[in-house]
Design a protein that fits this description.
RNA_pol_sigma_r2, about 160 residues, globular, about 70% helix
C-alpha cells in the first residue's frame, strides 16, 4: 500500500481517534497530521509492518500522551464558541452523551486513552499494552481506575443509562 492510499483509507479514522482522546477537533487534526508526517518519514518501514494502521495509531497515541506532558497542553478552550464558526462534530456517532463526554475529559490522559482504545476502538488489552508500551496488567488497572472515576461522576451526573 502506498502512503497516499493509506491516507485516503485511514486519514479520517485517525482524526476521529485523535478527537476521541483529546476532546478537541483542532488538536485531533494536529495529532493525525503529526502521526501521518512521522509515518511518511519512515513509510518503507511502516509499510512492511504486520499492521501499518496499528503502527500509525501507536504514533498518534504516543504523540497525544507526549503532548499532555507539555505545559502548553494545560491551555483550556473557551466554553463560548461562535456558532457560525463551528465544525460538525466528527465523533457524533462515537460519543452520544454530553455527560459521558465531559466525564471522559475529567480522566487522566492515560486513563482516557486506555478507555477509548478499549471501548471505542474495540482493542484488546494486549494490543493496547503494545500501543502504550506497558504491560497488559497495567492496561487493566488503568481501565479499572478510569471506570471507577466514571462511576463516581455518573452517580453525581446521572449518566447510568448512557454508560451501559
Amino acid at each position: 500500500m502506498e502512503f497516499e492510499e493509506y491516507v485516503s483509507a485511514r486519514g479520517q479514522e485517525l482524526v476521529r481517534l485523535g478527537f476521541t482522546v483529546s476532546g478537541d477537533y483542532q488538536r485531533a487534526e494536529d495529532l493525525a497530521q503529526t502521526a501521518l508526517m512521522q509515518a511518511f518519514r519512515s513509510w518503507r518501514k511502516v509499510r512492511k509492518a504486520d499492521d501499518p494502521h496499528h503502527y500509525v495509531r501507536r504514533i498518534l497515541v504516543n504523540e497525544y500522551l507526549s503532548m499532555t506532558r507539555r505545559r502548553s497542553f494545560t491551555e483550556a478552550p473557551t466554553a463560548e464558541i461562535d456558532p457560525q464558526s463551528t465544525v460538525p462534530d466528527p465523533a457524533t456517532g462515537i460519543v452520544d452523551s454530553d455527560d459521558l463526554w465531559h466525564a471522559l475529559q475529567e480522566l487522566s490522559a492515560r486513563e482516557r486513552v486506555v478507555l477509548v482504545l478499549r471501548y471505542y476502538q474495540d482493542l484488546d488489552d494486549r494490543t493496547i499494552a503494545e500501543l502504550l508500551g506497558i504491560k497488559p496488567s497495567s492496561v487493566r488497572s488503568t481501565a479499572s481506575r478510569g471506570l471507577a472515576t466514571l462511576r463516581q461522576t455518573r452517580q453525581s451526573n446521572r449518566v447510568d443509562e448512557r454508560l451501559s
